[in-house]
């Protein structure tokens, strides 16, 4: 189980007496420390790995909106080093996986050289033949320009990185979308106050309605310029990694 969007402090209790691996996603040393301390104290359990999602990732981000817009967050490298050093100080051999804004083999090598055991990449693999996203979704990635990428507010209560399409332009102009049905996906979401229904916005993205949806992307999406096979992407990444 890979768990993000908050601190999964009760996660070990859900997998007691099973062989299920549990991997939290964090965006800071503080979060990693809280999870590790709480899990050990309450469940005598540690993470099987820790994913560190930095400020260049797509989707919801564990950083403050203004810090992201003003580029005042810690960078991924700094957070990775802090968490790796923290785990070393505890004599823990827990793999650290770096994520967020990683695009090529050079990025992978940079993370491995500072102590990460591996990386997680998403945006790079969307415009591939094997990806099950719609063709319209993939083409939105391929056609994206750097200036199309924005940090936006989400009903979840966290900032997110997305493409600035007609949907977000309308939200910026009207501040609120009419919500005809609540899917009860968020306990704290009030349909009368929330700017838009995030479930509907994400489902529209899945359907390929790219101008009427929330299109989450990583910061390097503009570097995607063509459809590729996963085999070719992996080959390219490995060749670049060998050069670093």
Full CATH superfamily name of the largest domain? Aldolase class I
- Measured as a percent range, the helix fraction is 25-40%
Overall 3D geometry? globular
Which structural class fits the helix and strand makeup? alpha/beta
- Biggest beta sheet summary: 5 strands, parallel
Domain module count:
2
Radius of gyration: 19 Å
CATH fold title of the largest domain:
TIM Barrel
User: What is the average of the pLDDT values?
Assistant: 94
What is the H/E string? EHEHEEHHEHEHEEHHH
The count of strands amounts to: 8
Strand order of the largest sheet: 1-2-3-5-6
CATH class of the largest domain: Alpha Beta
Share of β-strand residues? 5-15%
Oligomer: single chain
Tell me the span between the first and last alpha carbons: 32 Å
Uncertain segments are none
Number of discrete helical segments: 9
> Which architecture of the largest domain does the CATH hierarchy give at level 2?
Alpha-Beta Barrel
How is this structure best described in words?
The protein is an alpha/beta fold and 244 residues long. The protein folds into 2 domains: 124 residues, Aldolase class I (TIM Barrel); 89 residues, no CATH class. The chain is 36% helix and 12% strand. The protein has 9 helices and 8 strands. The strands form 2 sheets. A 5-stranded parallel beta sheet has the order 1-2-3-5-6, with helices on one face. It has a 3-stranded antiparallel beta sheet with strand order 4-8-7. α5 links the parallel β5 and β6. α5 crosses α9. It starts with a strand and ends with a helix.
